[in-house]
Specification:
Elements lengths: L1 H8 L3 H19 L2 E3 L3 E3 L3 H32 L7 H18 L7 H33 L7 H41 L8
Antiparallel strand pairs: 1-2
Helix pairs in contact: 1-3, 2-3, 3-4, 3-6, 4-5, 5-6
Length: about 200
């Protein structure tokens, strides 16, 4: 039912425009990414994707996450390495996870909503960033994992694990500081003018 409702959101021109603006914001944040080594970077592109997920569900979030990944590659990485469709699929999965946790579920006060927001981020970091992205990047661009290759993989992946451990508290703080305020502002803008507080 939620999937059908999420897909139905995309029939609205207002929804398409809003998602497009949030994708543009994600790409702007992508341009400010801080590289750490060859395959690790600090970025906050997930914030607009989480807003899309909360407003429009899994379909909008998956589409926004994929388009951010693809256009981010075209704009910033096309000369560095070939595009990986598998990495694009992990971004789609991230959008699905965000949408599953957030769409229509940020109710019951700031505390409960904040917990759900943070849990969704933790799930994406663990499943998509730490596990899937690390395996895909290593196998596609660094080395094929053979029977004796797992030790080398874990040595290579340790900076990614360390970055995720350090950034999760920072990500969580940014999520709690920005997303509830953005969603509240969005709802306020959608209210009829006579119902808005002056």
């Amino acid at each position: 039912m939620k999937l059908k409702k999420s897909a139905g959101e995309l029939r609205s021109l207002e929804t398409i425009i809003t998602i497009g603006m949030l994708i543009a914001l994600s790409l702007a944040l992508r341009s400010l990414a801080i590289p750490i080594g060859d395959s690790v970077r600090i970025t906050f592109i997930f914030l607009p994707i989480m807003v899309v997920a909360a407003l429009y569900g899994v379909v909008g979030a998956a589409a926004a996450a994929f388009m951010t990944d693809f256009f981010g590659y075209v704009l910033f990485d096309i000369k560095k390495f070939p595009y990986s469709p598998l990495l694009g699929l992990t971004q789609i999965l991230a959008g699905i996870i965000y949408g599953t946790f957030l769409y229509g579920k940020l109710t019951g006060g700031l505390k409960r909503s904040g917990i759900r927001l943070v849990i969704s981020r933790v799930a994406v970091v663990l499943v998509c960033d730490v596990v899937l992205n690390s395996l895909i990047i290593y196998k596609s661009f660094v080395s094929s994992i053979g029977e004796s290759g797992w030790g080398a993989f874990f040595v290579w992946a340790s900076p990614r694990l360390g970055k995720s451990a350090v950034m999760l508290p920072i990500d969580s703080l940014l999520i709690l500081m920005t997303i509830p305020a953005v969603l509240a502002a969005y709802e306020r803008l959608r209210m009829p003018k006579e119902n808005r507080r002056r």
